[in-house]
Design goal:
Strand content: 15-25%
Helix content: 25-40%
Distance between the termini: 42 Å
Strand order of the largest sheet: 1-2-3-4-10-5-9-8-7-6
Structural class: alpha+beta
Number of helices: 9
Radius of gyration: 24 Å
Order of helices and strands: HEEEEHHEHEEEHEHHHHE
Shape: flat
Number of strands: 10
Number of domains: 1
Length: about 350
């Protein structure tokens, strides 16, 4: 039998092949009723979680929207191939599919008009509809429209993404549908044809069929631009008067002002961390690079040893054999933020 640590390390290696990042560290406690949970990518910019232990020898992998954006290009096809050809009894438990409109061709107002026109009805039933924020007197903070209930197998939100990011004049609109395995099976094909599944979710979304959402890098840049403006605005409110004093009264040079206010070694604001852009700009140290066994020093008084390199399976057949000999693996996979 292979120790749990080696099994996690092997999965980390496989995830790095698929996404470009693996398992970074162990969380203090498990999530989703699993005994242990591990962070994917890095702790301060979490790309997802891997949970394992105590649930009929299954493994649960969750990928966040940030993880989807930071993963190496083509990860959807690589994940599809792995789940179809290699994983044992895989299933998708949730997939979020999004469409971004930067130009205002579709909006929350049009979406609500489609609701009233019956274009979000499924099976002749009117869906549950909820508005968030001030729709009567919009203040520029962004409005959201929810279609359906979170507990259902299909739940949709449309919101003013640009305004949510802090730009009151932005036309950026995002439509996002959660598909969950509630009374339905989510086909693996959704990983390859996300846009078609979004377009088929409601008659109103047929307008998205055949359209491509903006390139991933364009979305990342747009989010970074809004985040930078947001941080700059509040930085000016917080220290603007002090900067005036430092320049006009204390006679600090611009360079000295920057050096006095900067905090070396603490990195960048959360929304501007480079790891948001690409996994290659984040943590590159993952547990699969070495086999680790932690000992309680009071219980095991033994000299430290050099970590062993893990012997990893290198083929699909080898992976299947590894899984079947050591664990019965069922992958409960939740993926957020796939773009249509």
């Amino acid at each position: 039998m292979v120790a749990d640590e080696d099994f996690i390390a092997t999965m980390s290696w496989k995830l790095t092949e698929i996404f470009g990042f693996g398992v970074a560290s162990k969380r203090p406690r498990g999530m989703n009723f699993y005994r242990e949970t591990w962070v994917l990518g890095q702790e301060d910019v979490c790309y997802g979680n891997l949970s394992f232990g105590g649930q009929r020898n299954t493994m649960c992998i969750q990928l966040t929207a940030v993880g989807c954006m930071a993963a190496h290009s083509g990860w959807e096809k690589r994940l599809y191939d792995f789940l179809r050809d290699t994983a044992v009894n895989p299933r998708l438990t949730r997939v979020d599919v999004a469409y971004d409109d930067f130009d205002g061709e579709y909006s929350v107002d049009q979406m609500y008009a489609d609701v009233q026109a019956g274009l979000f009805n499924c099976g002749g039933r009117n869906p549950f509809v909820e508005k968030r924020s001030d729709w009567d007197n919009p203040d520029g903070s962004g409005r959201t429209l929810y279609i359906g209930k979170r507990s259902n197998g299909k739940f949709t939100r449309g919101y003013e993404k640009g305004k949510e990011q802090g730009c009151k004049s932005s036309k950026w609109f995002r439509a996002e549908t959660e598909f969950k395995n509630v009374d339905r099976v989510i086909p693996l094909d959704i990983l390859l044809n996300a846009g078609a599944y979004l377009a088929g979710a409601y008659p109103a979304f047929e307008r998205f069929r055949g359209k491509k959402t903006p390139e991933r890098i364009k979305t990342i840049i747009k989010e970074a631009e809004f985040a930078f403006d947001h941080y700059l605005h509040y930085a000016a409110l917080q220290v603007g008067r002090l900067v005036n004093y430092m320049r006009d009264v204390a006679k600090y040079s611009e360079q000295k002002i920057v050096e006095s206010l900067a905090r070396p070694g603490v990195g960048f604001p959360q929304r501007l961390k480079l790891a948001n852009i690409s996994a290659d700009l984040g943590n590159r140290s993952f547990v699969h690079q070495y086999a680790h066994v932690d000992y309680d020093i009071d219980e095991f008084a033994r000299p430290p040893v050099e970590p062993e390199q893990i012997e990893l399976p290198t083929t699909a057949d080898g992976w299947k054999k590894f899984c079947r000999v050591n664990k019965t693996t069922l992958f409960d996979l939740g993926v957020s933020g796939i773009q249509g």
